[in-house]
Automatic annotation (TrEMBL):
Signal peptide: none annotated. Residues 139-229 form the Acyl-CoA oxidase/dehydrogenase middle domain. The keyword Metal-binding does not apply. Keywords: FAD, Flavoprotein, Oxidoreductase, Transit peptide. It comes from Streptomyces aidingensis. One of its GO terms (molecular function) is fatty-acyl-CoA binding. Its cofactor is FAD. GO terms for biological process: fatty acid beta-oxidation using acyl-CoA dehydrogenase; fatty-acyl-CoA biosynthetic process. This is Glutaryl-CoA dehydrogenase.
Amino acid sequence: MAAEPLPPFDPADPLGIDDLLAPEDLAVRETVRSWAADRVLPEIAGWYERGELPAVRELARELGALGALGMTLEGYGCAGASALQYGLACLELEAADSGIRSLVSVQGSLAMYALHRFGSEELRREWLPRMASGEVIGCFGLTEPDHGSDPGAMRTSARRDGGDWVLSGRKMWITNGSVAGVAVVWARTEEGIRGFAVPTDSPGFSAPEIRHKWSLRASVTSELVLDEVRLPAGALLPGARGLGAPLACLGHARYGIVWGAMGAARSCFRAALDYARTREQFGRPIGAFQLTQAKLADMAVELHKGMLLAHHLGRRLDAGKLRPEQVSFGKLNNVREALEICRTARTVLGANGISLEYPVMRHATNLESVLTYEGTSEMHQLVLGKALTGLDAFRG
């Protein structure tokens, strides 16, 4: 009996990873990819060059209509999608730009996730439906000017005053901060670290935008200033006690980064591959030279290994088996390899690699931020080191 012919080799999917996806997964990916191609790619180079995201509120509403905000959450107008589908969405969004994926990630995996998992029913009903639709944008205030990798040392405080809470402090490098309608803020109290839903029109709250960035330029980044901000007792997230609560939110967001980084890498790889096929030197395309082919082969291997890792972690998350150490594994590997792919792609494009006519340098500079936010490479190495050895190297 004759064997079935093998399927053709697909340079866009050399390992046949699409065979792992169900039709509904592919439909989600195509919907987000088409939206990004229509709404982001034609404008992103200009937004990045000018250092702005002028259509952020409009984009948020469109993303809400797609079901991309709070995508894996159940109820309150959220899509209730699988973790795998959310990962595919993150990949396509970051293939357009890391700033767009950050908008969605902070909205859904940080602010909405915190409210959904730790908030009261009143807070969920107040905020989540409007956040799912994109009517309200949220932000997540954990990092401080002097405390990034060590959030447990935060100085922002909340004290009781009668039936109210009064918050004071500063948060730094907050995505969506100056366009948010609600900020999930973490503060030190007599009871330990607690979370609060802070309406951004509260007296004493301000969110000056951070400018002069050379990375994530098409993203709104802000400082949060809380000057004796008075909140009712109901603003407290009752289910959030201790540092484990914000870290759980970060774990959910880091999962999206595992996928998103591969989107940026894919964009750069494809730009390099297309360029190598058409750019001629010494009378033939540069893709015909051995050294260029070696670069392309190495990029393809790391890109698709990273995508397989993302798929595996997505399946584990959907099965309720994904551990924080495994998320650290994914973020450490995929962001690090994505950066190397971007840098190698830049060498293939030569001088054209620094031009905004191509996506490579934009993705490379964005990934420099992705490398360190939501846990630096060093922190994830130490998480894995502790898991492997059973010895804690975080503190002396």
